[in-house]
Each structure stands twice: as C-alpha cells, then as structure tokens.
Amino acid sequence: MLASTLETSDVLLQVNGLKKYYFIREGIFGGVTGSINAVDDISFTVKKGETFSIVGESGCGKSTTGKCLVRIEDPTSGSIVLNNKNITSSHGKELLDLRRNIQMIFQDPYSSLNPKHTIRESISEPLVNFRIAKGAELEKKLTNLMEIVGLSPKYLDRYPHEFSGGQRQRIGIARALAVNPELIICDEPVSALDVSIQSQILNLLKDLQQEFQLTYIFISHDLSVVHHISDRVAVMYLGRIVEMGSKTELFNNPKHPYTKALLSSIPIANPDIDNKQDRIILNGDVPSPRNPPNGCYFHTRCPYKKEQCENSYPDFTSISETHKTACFYVNEI
Amino acid sequence: MEALLEVKNLNVGTGASEDDIKILNDINLYVNRNETVAIVGESGCGKSLTALSIMGLLPIPATKLISGEIKYEGKDLTKLSEKELNRIRGKDIAMIFQEPMSSLNPSFTIGNQLAEVFKCHTRFSKSEIKKRSIELLTKVRVSDPEEKLSAYPYQLSGGMRQRVMIAMALACNPKIILADEPTTALDVTIQAQIIDLLKELQQEFGMTILMITHDLGVVAETCDRIIVMYAGEVVEEGRVKEIFHHPRHPYTKGLLDSIPIIGKPLERLNLIKGNVPDLNSMPSGCRFHPRCELATNHCKDSKPGIELTSGGRSVRCWHPH
Do residues A157 and A118 make contact, with C-beta atoms less than 8 angstroms apart? Predict the structure, then answer.
C-alpha cells in the first residue's frame, strides 16, 4: 500500500476498498434484480496539504466517491479513515464533528445556494449550526469571509439571483471555509463557469490552500484544469481507479490505455500543433454500469486488448512508488 | 469572391424603441464557401443569438430583430416570408444544437424525426426515405443504423444523440451548417469522436461550417477563421493562427492567456479581472474598458469602431496589441 511508505502523521484521509452499490428493485415485491456499482472497490490515500484529483468521464463514479467521503451517501462497504479515525459509519454528534472537518464545494453555483436565503443567511448557517460564532463575532467573521473570497461585505444582504456564476461560486467557497475545515471536496467547481471566470476561481482556490493549509480532493472531467491544480491524480473508469500517480507521472508517462486516450483527446489550443496523428479515438461509449463487461472493464474500447483482458480484471501494478495502474500489459504498451 | 453567408449591421434587442435593451450591437460577419469559421465568446456575449438570427429562430416576443441584413447567396433572409424561409432552412442552412437531449423530440423515434426532414424538403417515397436514413446514420457512424431507426432518444447515449442531430442536419446536403456548441455537452473521448467526424464530413462534402463555441482548443483544431464576441459585439476577427499567435484585442489576449494548457505549467493563471457586464448597464465607450488593463480615459468616453476587411484582420480597440 502507498500508505505504508508515508509517515502516518502526513496522512489525512485513507480510503480502503470503498464501494457504493445502488440496488435496483423491480416487480410488485420489490425484489433486488441487479445493482449499479457506482463505486467499485477503490482505495487511495490523501496527504495533508496536497491536492488529490479524481478524473473521469460522466458516470464513472467520481462524484459518488466525493459524496461518500462527506457521508451524503452511505458507502456499501469499505472504510474511510480521517485523521486516524474511522468515519465510515459515524452518526449523530460524531458525524457533525466530521462535517466540520470535511466541507464540499458543489458544481452548480445556481442550484447549490438556497434562492430564498440571503448570502448572510447562507454563510452564517454553518457558523450558527456548529456554534462557532454569534452576535458581533458572527458579523466580524462574515465580513472576513467575504473579503477572503474577494467579495465586498456590502453584498451580504443580497440574494443569490443577484450574483453571476463566478460570484456565486465564491459564496459557495466562503460557506465551505466558514467552519475551518481541513479537507475540502471540490466537485467540478469550475465546470459551470466561463474561461475568464474559471481562472479567477482556480487562482483563488490555490491562494486559499496556501493561506489555510487546506487539503483538496478535486473532482473534475477537465484534464487541463486538473493538470493545473493537482499534486496527485487518480483516473476512474466505470467505478474503478485504473491509474493513479503524481501529476508528472500521469501526464508525462501515462500507462493505462484509457489514460492515454483521455489525454490524447483533449483539444489543444494551439493551431500549430497537429496532434491528429497520435490521437487515439476510442470506439463506442462507456458501457452501462448496470452490466459492466466481463474481465477488464475497459476491454470493449481498448485498442490493445488481448484474450486475457476479456476474462479477468487486472490487479494494480506498481510502476514506481507512487505510480500504479490496473492493466495486464503495462510494460508492453 | 462573394461570401456564402454575410451578416451586415445586425441589431437585435428586446424591443425596437430607444429604451429597450440592445442585445446584439451592429454585428458584421461573413462566411466563405468551404470555410470553417468560429464565433468565440463567453456566455451571454450573443454568439448563440447571432446563430438564431441567421436561422430566423429568434425567441419571440423576448427579442426583436431591429435592423440589419442576413444575406445567403445574395438573398436577404430577413426579408423572406416564413414560407420562403422554410424552403431554405433545414435544406440549405442546417443547424446542430448544443443539447442533444433537449433538441430531439423525446416522444418520436429517431426514424420518425429523420423522415420529417425528408418529408419537408423532398418528394421521396417511404422506402426511399428509409434507405436514405440508414445511409445517413451509417455516414455519421451510428452502429446498427437499421435498429436505431426505431429507437427513442432516451435509449441513446449523448454522443449517439449528437450523431443523430448531425445526420438530421446533413439530410438534405446543406451548403452551410451552423453548429452551436456541438461538443460542449459531451465527454472528452466522445468529443474527440464528434470533432473527427465533423472534420471528415467537411473534407468529404466541402461543407461550410459556422461553429459557435467557447472552447478554444476545439477552435484551434477545426477552424480557419475566428470571430471573437464580447458583450454583444464583434471585437476581433482574423485567421486562427494569427489570432492565437498575435491577439490584438486585450480581451482576446486575456481569454487565450487564462486557459490552463497541459505542458505549459504556471503557478498562477493569468486572468481577466471582473465580470461580463450586465445587459442593462453596459459601460460607456468601449464595452471592455472596466476589465481592460490598457484602458484610458479615451476608452471610457468614446466607442472604438471595427472595420471588416475581407482576408485581413479587424479589431475593435483604441489601443490594440
């Protein structure tokens, strides 16, 4: 395991064999007829102060993983250990404490703020809930939070509809920061924003990380953004991690055919580079998670598949101490 | 050479009177035969509305075409009756919409929706329509085309739906295709498939494409010329390479600098400060001046003009780079 090579004091979060299955019930008796394995046995470790990114296409289970970590969804099995404390089945007061430590920034700034609450109400809710501040102190804290995320405190009494997408995302960030969390899960925080605004938010996230020693789990489908912000990256496909490594390892030396295809499909904003020659265009679509293919999940689209791939799922192979991938033919590709 | 499509001094607003908000301000653009032109800009800059105006699909009564000409092969589309327009759109000018989920009718099969295009514009028999539909679906690389004809949109994935949309657009061998963010709603691996397909069709049929997008990567790979829009105006226009290497308008430069590029690591991204202005409180003078680093008092007071010259470049700025 990766964790054993690290000082235990460096590790903030350790996820082991995490699974989230949604069972399908059909018929009048509601019998279970199948399951959707949204997250299927994934393990990873996140160090303090780093940015760990999870990338993948829609439906690969990256958001579900994020939701399991904050316990919006209860995992089917596996363990989540935060600061040496198993939080997989925390409830009641323990769960409240946990949520003080893990906060989330959501994708869609239009639907993640209550339209009937003013910004003051939205941001002060966690502060009041966790009994962190009240009265004059609350006011001071709110002003401070607004300034941290680059908004004028005079906007506190406005409603979400009066703000643009980028400003709303800033409000979402202020709300997450209010309780001084250690870990923030950013679920596609910039995908709904325009490019000029996207860069503002990415810079803000980086600044805040330095200022408050935050740890991020950054969930995204945009590889350019992930490359910009991450220290380590995991690539997910159909509920499983297919490759994991440091940013440089993964982007400069991708080993899994899926990672290679993913990287080669990004359109490059430079008209001089013609990457059409080495572009790997995958056939077909991602299979349905309700009946994933036998063997390696990727074999239906893989340009390198061999017979073995259709029969069994490959184990993780270590390429270096930090770089691992699940493919039978790592050394040949 | 005469342009295939030419938009001249197009103005669109919420109404015709002086107090109504002007959404598109004096848009000028042209698309030559066999050319792929991109309209680039952020949300709310008016790029989709420009395409809708060309198709005569402006949402009514929310918006109104105030003045301007839209010339297709020399004919002014704004002067045509609905009936005459129907003969051109869908046949000569086709459109691919952004959201493949909501732009196909969920209660009709793919075969039904493809057949509708033929019924409107041709006199094909039923069997001929079926034959053509299968041909089209094969052309856009839909697997098992015959089976897919009886499928409903919800039974297809996003990429497949977008292929069906493209097949519908191609049905009558259009001379020009307006593609409004054709790959935005798709995953990267599927996006690569669709871009590949568009390029191939473009080569095979010598199609003219006017693509609307905010993804500069897609533009760099597929287009010949770029039109940059900001706050309802065209601010810069030129060939792709020239614009990417020497952006002259500060907004274009800011836009190009603010995208993270793999292989070009930066500690901090460059950015354009502030937000896109609100339609009902447009800044005076140059609309970009509150966000511009080069802005002077002159920019605040008077509005820079834009000259559109064929082959050359044009920029709407007092202090271009």
Answer: yes
pLDDT of residue A8: 57
Residue A66 inside a domain? The answer is yes
- Which contiguous run of DSSP H or E holds residue A259? helix A257-264
CB-CB neighbors (< 8 A) of B143 in chain A: 284
- Mutation target to probe the A interface, by most A beta carbons within 10 A, among B269, B280, B292 is B269
Q: Chain A contacts of B244, Cβ < 8 Å?
A: 269-271
pLDDT one-digit tens code per residue, A288-301? 888 888 889 999 98
What is the predicted pLDDT for the residue at B173? 87
Asked if A199 and B260 come within 8 Å (Cβ–Cβ), the reply is yes
**A220 part of a folded domain:** yes
Which domains, and CATH codes, for chain B?
1-82+224-321 (3.40.50.300), 90-176+194-206 (3.40.50.300)
Q: Cα distance from B173 to chain A (closest Cα, Å)?
A: 26
Total domains in chain A come to 1
Contact A225 B260 (CB under 8 A): yes
> A225 in a domain, yes or no?
yes
Q: What's the Cα-to-Cα distance from B181 to each of A53, A86, A89, A260, B207, rounded to whole Å? A: 27, 45, 44, 25, 17
* Beta strand spans in A27-87 (E): 31-47, 51-55, 77-82, 85-86
Q: Do B259 and A57 lie within an 8 Å CB cutoff? A: no
pLDDT of residue B228: 93
Average pLDDT, chain B: 87
Any domain includes A112: yes
Nearest chain A residue to B185 by CA: give it.
A58
Measured CA to CA, the distance from residue A195 to residue A201 in angstroms comes to 10
Q: Report the distance separating Cα B53 and Cα B78, nearest Å.
A: 9
Model pTM? 0.85
Which residues in chain A have their CB less than 8 angstroms from residue B242's CB? Answer: none
Smallest CA–CA distance from A59 into chain B, residue:
B187
Q: What are the Cα distances from residue A131, in Å, to A134, A171, A205, B87? A: 8, 20, 26, 67
Q: Domain holding A94: CATH number?
A: 3.40.50.300
The ipTM assigned to this model is 0.78
- Which residues are bridge partners to A36 per DSSP? A22
* Chain B residues lying within 8 Å of A266, measured CB to CB: 188, 217, 262
* Mutation to test the A interface, candidates B271, B272, B293, most A Cβ within 10 Å: B271
Of B192, B220, B265, the CB nearest to A271: B220
Range of A279's domain? 3-116+181-197+212-325
Condensed to tens digits (0 to 9), the pLDDT of residues B275-303 reads 788 777 888 889 999 988 888 898 888 88
Give the model's confidence band at A50: pLDDT under 50 very low, under 70 low, under 90 confident, else very high: very high
Q: Can you tell me the distance from the alpha carbon of A49 to that of A214, in angstroms, rounded to the nearest whole number?
A: 5
Q: What is the pLDDT of residue B236?
A: 92
The residue ranking higher by pLDDT, A215 or B182, is: A215
Per-residue pLDDT at A102: 92
Interface contact B38, partner A, CB < 8 A: no
